[in-house]
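Hey,
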Amino acid sequence: MAPFYFAYVNSNFISFLIFDTQFQINTMKYLPINKQLFIKNRKNFMAQMKPNSLAVFNSNDIYPVSADSTLPFEQHRDIFFLSGVDQEESILIVFPDCPKENLREVLFLRETNEHIAVWEGEKLTKEKAFETSGVKTVFWLQDLEKVLAEMMAYAETVYINTNEHYRAKIETETREARFTKWLLNKYPAHTVAKSNPILQRLRSVKDQIELDLIQKACDITEKGFRRILNFVQPGVWEYEIEAEFSHEFLRNRSKGFAYTPIIASGNNANVLHYIENNQQCKAGDLILLDVGAEYANYSSDMSRTIPVSGRFTDRQKEVYNAVNRVKNDATKMLVPGTDWAEYHKEVGKLMTSELLGIGLLDKADVQNENPDWPAYKKYFMHGTSHHMGLDTHDYGLLYEPMQANMVFTVEPGIYIPEEGFGIRLEDDVVIQEKGEPFNLMRNIPIEVEEIEDIMNS
């Protein structure tokens, strides 16, 4: 039930009387993160800035739906990466060479008070902001222009934060973009630099604290997957499976899905980004599950394919095992120094061999293939691996060699519309200094026999 309230107004104040509701402190579901992570991240960022320069980072907007409805708030990953601040209307400025020591790291927050605490939940106080971020100097947002004017007077270069991710398609002007427009108009004499190239490199190599958070997200995903293995049977609906995942994620301190889930039964699996999740699962079909829980804004990204009836047919098993072999062999290639583009060419060779083995390609198909669209692309048309972390498709410069502590997905698939099913298998792995990567999803069932045993236990 929505809260019932009325307002009493006089010349001095407005007081609200609230009935039939309870208000809880608006804290995040996840447990506190060690602020040393954010202190280290800022230090690493500032070490790569030009002399006598400052950089500005904004939180995201809360986006409207209609009337007074809004979408759930999602923090801009860059300000979170550098401060741990996870609320709207927040700004971080770093200025390592500032002559005033107290202005070298500054947070600006929306001022909180008892009224806001009652109506929206508790916001960060200056003390809590320090506990979260390690930033000692915290101002309320209304002081921004005055303090920024002083800082800009000392600075020669200003770093702006633009989204240059290779998958980005931006149609809505962000809070960051609006602020940048205002800043450059107000201070046109400053040299402008970009934060993104620095962040692309920093965010792509994970700290151990970050790896632990991603592992937590993967562990929550495992709980969801094991739950649905005991739930799926002929006649269930795709959205019911989605609901089972959501239940398990939320009860384990996740906000929910790290990305829009794919629950694709039968031929739906041959639509790569099928998200309707509104069809009934039929006996004999497979269900392709591409889901992942988030935890503390960090993503997981899992794909599994399971039989509605609890048993794979011989043909389904043959194709499934072919995909799994490609995944296992591709994973071994993810080592320091690997070139992303060359890696995908090698995975293409692995997939071509498997498609020949299961009769989907013949030698003539391969001999006559178009080099720009090899024969295997008919059945495996997407990439095999992408960076993962704070974003599901995380920051990382694909033209630079892979490094230890980068996290990548490994997700080959074979899609056969004429046979009515598609199979994708995906794990998240951490590149190691030496040897094969560490599989963050090592405990999530993937072998045919294990899946069948659990579904029939």
